[in-house]
Amino acid sequence: MRGMKVEILNLFVSPGHNYRGRHGKGALHHGNEDRDSIECVAGSGIRGDRYFDFKEDFKGQITFFDAAVYEAMKRQFDRPDLQAGAVRRNVMVRGVDLNSLIGRRFRIGDVEFEGSEEAKPCYWMDEACAEGTEKFLEKSGGLRARIKVSGVLGKGMAELTVL
């Protein structure tokens, strides 16, 4: 199948969970490092990330977020200072409809993925970004995916091919 050009703007890796398992306890504040490249390991996730080897066949070994949605969020909530890492997704990308990749295998560069489901926003988004963010992101919360073929993903322009 023919590929399309996409731009990878950010590649985030966090060593710990800020929100998972924190209901009623308040958020933690683990860093979210924006790297020039990340190592994607088939069946495991991103080396160094909080979800690396989380559990067998985990649906969210890597997560993607649409830069256009992020920019719309900043406008909607008058948050020009909102950092891209606030949404706690790994890859900020421009140029592809992420929901169209649910249930599909695709390749970016040499790394192969399988889109598993929407990365649905939760109530923590209201704390992390702005009140109303969870509702705003319904059906556009990003993409959770499995890594099927290992490789290194880097920032910049890339070819995305749906397989």
Describe the structure.
With 163 residues, the chain is mostly beta strands. It is built from three helices and eleven strands; from the N terminus they run βββββαβββααβββ. The strands form two sheets. It has a seven-stranded mixed β-barrel with strand order 1-6-5-9-8-7-11. β7 and β8 (111-118) form a beta hairpin. It is globular and about 40 Å long.
Quick synopsis:
With 163 residues, the chain is mainly beta. 12% of the residues lie in helices and 36% in strands.
Question: pLDDT under 50 segments (min length 5)?
Answer: none
Biggest β-sheet, characterized?
7 strands, mixed, barrel
How many E-type strands?
11
* Residue-averaged pLDDT: 89
The helix tally amounts to 3
Strand order in the sheet with the most strands:
1-6-5-9-8-7-11
Helical proportion? Answer: 10-25%
Given helix and strand content, the structural type is mainly beta
Order of helices and strands: EEEEEHEEEHHEEE
- What is the subunit organization of this protein? single chain
Cα-atom radius of gyration:
15 Å
- Estimate the global geometry from the Cα principal axes: globular
Amount of beta strand: 35-45%
End-to-end CA span: 6 Å
